[in-house]
Amino acid sequence: MNNQSFRKRMYRSHDRILGGVLAGFAEFINYDITIIRVLYVVLSLLLAGFPGLLIYVILWAITPEAPR
Q1: 51 part of a folded domain
Q2: pLDDT class of 7 with cuts at 50, 70, 90
Q3: Per the domain annotation, does 15 fall within a domain?
Q4: Residues sharing a CB contact under 8 Å with residue 23, sequence separation 6 or more, in sequence order
């Protein structure tokens, strides 16, 4: 029996509009990219934009790009 556990990692996607963070998150949770993007924009606008933008920039900086 193999004792190594499989850990799924989140990466920035190559299917990107800006930084690939939301597309990478959608791939990580296996959900539709468009729905994730729309929900994120709506939530950011409802929260006056700044927290959503700040979170996106932080995730863009710390999330590694997907290997080719």
Answers
A1: yes
A2: confident
A3: no
A4: 12, 13, 15, 16, 17, 33, 36, 37
